Amino acid sequence: MDEDLDIESDIVDLSEIDLAVLPLLQDSVLVRSIRRILRSAEHPDDVVAFQQSI
Amino acid sequence: MSGASLDPEWPTPEDIAALSAAGWRPAPIRQFVLKVHSRCNLACDYCYVYRMADQTWRDRPRTMSRNTVWLAADRIAEHARRHRLSRVIVIFHGGEPLLAGAAFFAEAAQLLRSALPPSTALRMTVQSNGVLLTDSFLDTLAGHDISVAVSLDGSADAHDRYRRYPNGRPSHADIARRLTRLSSGRYRRLFSGLLCTVDINQDPVECYEALLRFGPPRMDFLLPLGNWTAPPPGRTRDATFTPYADWLGTVFDRWYSAPVQETELRLFNEIIHMLLGGAGHLESLGLAPPGVAVIETDGSLEESDTLKSAYHGAAATGMRLATHSMDELLSHPRVAARQLGAAALATQCLACPVQRVCGGGFYPHRYRAGAGFRNPSVYCPDLLALIRHIRTRLRRDLSRLAGTAR
Q1: Is the ipTM here above 0.95?
Q2: pTM (2 decimals)?
Q3: Would you call B362 and A51 a contact, using CB atoms and an 8 Å cutoff?
Q4: Which of B44, B62, B247, B262 ranks highest by number of CB atoms within 10 Å?
Q5: Strands (E), B36-120
Q6: Which residue in chain A is spatially nearest to B290 when comparing CA positions?
């Protein structure tokens, strides 16, 4: 895991997730969520969505 | 109900001036909601535009004029240049926006694109009830790269309970036919997703799976609009009673347990993302500042139109495209209040363990006549229970991957 990743989670120390296993796992909600949080550290998105549209 | 006497104005212009002096700056507006048609071809029981406290639609032009679109494009471009925005999102909304006609969208898209600086990408979406989504209309939207999101309330029975034509005829069958076209073949790339308002009387899994049948790339469940003065259906004062958390938690378990993710589910995705430490990306959760401007058919600049569920005129700012910039809109005290994050929360919220994820909930849900918006959400017990439910599930599964789940 990228050592510069600076994301504080309330429930898990993300730095201890073994990223090597992610490609071996099915594309579940959990796996996608972990990929998303890792992506967001490098490519933050400032858009906060209007709820009445998707 | 008049908001002027019952809604204490917080923050005041003086509060905003003090915040600015202390270094606070509003986040720029990145989403522009164009109310292109103020009427609708459905008569949904719970509609916040026509059936709740605010009735300002009665005095609006039906369709946004070409001049108003031109002014909107100019103001959006001005804002994009001033804040060097790399991307803006325009949401065509209503009423039912497709009532404006296909030619309107073609012209609006051209005006918006030509006004924006080359360095600003433009994404356009129309949020529709789907009734008028003919192939011909879809061809026009495709030609201008306008994606399409549709409101659908689950199974036919559940949807038709509320979403009917003015003559009482149900609408689900018509919309399902249109969605079948949108979700397949050459139109598939336009399909942005489905929005569903929660009805706790509907079976939650049946609702989710009814929506899933159309293969949406994403969907979301919206809590019905309501507040402490006009509570949502089934939301009592008993804080141990959490019907919406129970309903959504059941959907969450069904969605989350799929071996391969079937669709993005925005509400749950956002809660998970924030529990994992990420920033919020939805105006109804978290503490990130929403940057949304609503432009009415007459060129009025307003706050998020869902505030109309609180009291007559609640979304009004007194500002207009012709005379006010988007930066001036951001300086309006009630617009600024939406951007203050934790500083805008009620005392109870500041002490809450899920404050960072919940963020006090959706702003219109916080309203209480006589006390304004500085309250917990009327859905507070449900939000707390839902976030805890998701947190428990996540923590259990993450412990298998990380071994350090707390």
Answers
A1: no
A2: 0.92
A3: yes
A4: B247
A5: 87-93
A6: A48
